[in-house]
Design goal:
Elements lengths: L1 H17 L3 H14 L4 H13 L3 H14 L4 H13 L3 H14 L3
Length: about 110
């Protein structure tokens, strides 16, 4: 089933992350996203890999997908702020994170 395939690719991706094999992990998470675009963990994990690979704009793209589905997702907000910080967009990083944290979950 699609769910089983998703779980298999996610587990493989997680194993690659544990070994710091971020490019390989991204391939697995991309397969997860192809199977189900609305599964938040694959987008978050892809964002983590892009951050580790210093692909900051791609990391932001991944978290934006998460925030469409879950606007208050703390991991997504944190990873977006981290990527903006690395891109030296300090006011954007701080303001977006602060505003969302003030609003709280939901």
């Amino acid at each position: 089933t699609k769910e089983e395939q998703y779980a298999k690719f996610k587990d493989q991706g997680n194993a690659h992350v544990a070994k710091q094999q971020y490019r390989e992990a991204l391939r697995c998470y991309d397969k997860c996203i192809t199977l189900n675009r609305e599964m938040v963990p694959a987008h978050l994990n892809s964002a983590l890999c892009h951050l580790k690979l210093e692909n900051y704009k791609r990391a932001i793209g991944c978290v934006e997908e998460v925030l469409k589905l879950e606007p208050s997702n703390i991991k997504a907000l944190y990873r977006r702020a981290a990527a903006n910080k690395e891109l030296k967009k300090y006011p954007v990083a701080a303001k977006r994170f602060e505003i969302r944290c003030r609003k709280g979950p939901g």
